[in-house]
Amino acid sequence: MSVAIAGAAECDLGKTGKSILELQTQAVTRALADAGLTLADVDGIATNGISRFSATQLADYLGLQPSWSDSSFAGGAVFEMYVARAAQAISSGQCSTVVISYASNQRSARSRKLTGVYEEGTPEAAFEEPYRPLYPISYYAMVAQRYLHTYGLSRADLAGVAVAARDRAQLNPAAWTYGKGPLTVDEVLAAPMISSPLGALDCCLVTDGGGAVVLTSLSRARDLPKPPVTVMGYGEALTHTGMATAPDLLRTGAIESGQRAFARAGLAPADVDVVQLYDSFTISVPLGLEALGFAAPGEGLSVTLPHNTGGGGLAYCHPGQLGVLLLVEAVRQLRGECGARQVPDASVALAHGTGGIFSSHATVILGVDR
Amino acid sequence: MILQFCRSCQKYQYYPRPICVACGGDDLWPVEAAGTGVVDSFTVVHRAETPYTVARVSLTEGPIVLTHLVDIPDPVCDQPVRLDWRDGLPVFRPSLPE
Ligand SMILES: [Zn+2]
């Protein structure tokens, strides 16, 4: 059975002063309204970041008793994984209408910690934490250092990613940096160094925000108000938790995740019109575009294929986990709803989520209904 | 610095585990590392009174370890380093000249 995304929405973004569950409620009810459905239609929930029992918590808060749920945790990649799980659950008949949602109030609550989380009893707590890397940025910084070294590039080359993200956000009224005007390479280079070669403006934003998407069967989605966006393929890969595990910093799990998604969809990178890629840091963009097959190794900084059209985590919104908002922007591009930033005739979109320190990867390929 | 050597597949691993992640075997023996390697990559962490250099070092035996670089003001990827100890932690400093 083919499955489609029938609704998509953001909750309030930026600095909201709202609780996580208030933002979750906004995301869920707005996505359902977008789909022409109500809470009474929902029998599947996938979410995390609320509590230890995230899906159950959200179900209780919304007065639901779903027949299917998923609260897997894999960092920001998990929302693309939820799409795969939801499509399988709908196809197998375990449920008919799934809401995938996420929200964070991390800016309002000042809950973001740069030192991150080393959990007691893990090998990383014993063998890596004593060296006081910042989690996750020091890992991305080592990837960036290796990338610049390998391809003979400079910090200024990488800074261009932040500059481009800011430019794109000027076309997205919902973006945190909308109306702030362009960023220059010099400004990125002059920002306080955090973990070299990455400075403060090489890092994603810290904002409140979130969103939701609604999945149902394609045949049902065709009877709903908005044009269905079909789930054409998905793939994922888990590679490591430790900073010393990956044999090659420049070969991430996005390679396998992307290949699996393309194989399932029966498509190739050349078929994709627009990419939404998790830009946790500037380095994530060129490396991700290369891994997914949109550029040769070392050439990811010169990709012209439209990507991160809303401004991404660097310039639009970064509520701790960006994954669900990658899906929201992909859906809107495929529906032609993006106004000034619309990619003309976009018919295939790829969303790629990443979690942890390039630890988990998941790719979803979406298309217009033909 | 103690590595594990797998007598079944002849590979080394670090940190210690009950099985060899290369072959799944458990014929693992503790061996002293040669203490030599090269910098795979590094980052200078500036969120401290005194910045410090976190690095991945590729040991000659194969495993990669997270560590600190000491007495290397301007590290570069692929430069050779040797093991030293600071406050009970294995760290790496410049290789001795040949
Ligand atoms: Zn072995």
UniProtKB/TrEMBL annotation, chain A:
Extract the PANTHER family matched here.
ACETYL-COA C-ACETYLTRANSFERASE, NON-SPECIFIC LIPID-TRANSFER PROTEIN-LIKE 2
GO MF terms here are: acyltransferase activity, transferring groups other than amino-acyl groups
| Matching InterPro entries | Thiolase, Thiolase-like, Thiolase_C_2
Tell me what organism the protein belongs to: Actinoplanes lutulentus
Q: Which UniProt keywords apply?
A: Transferase
Record domain Thiolase C-terminal: where: 235-367
Q: What is the top-level taxon of the source organism?
A: Bacteria
Return the protein name.
Acetyl-CoA acetyltransferase
From TrEMBL, chain B:
Recorded source organism is: Actinoplanes lutulentus
All residue ranges annotated as the ChsH2 C-terminal OB-fold domain in the record: 31-86
Where does the source fall among the domains of life?
Answer: Bacteria
What is the protein named? Answer: DUF35 domain-containing protein
**Pfam families from the UniProt entry:** OB_ChsH2_C, zf-ChsH2
In what residue span(s) does the ChsH2 rubredoxin-like zinc ribbon domain sit?
A: 6-28
**Transmembrane regions:** none
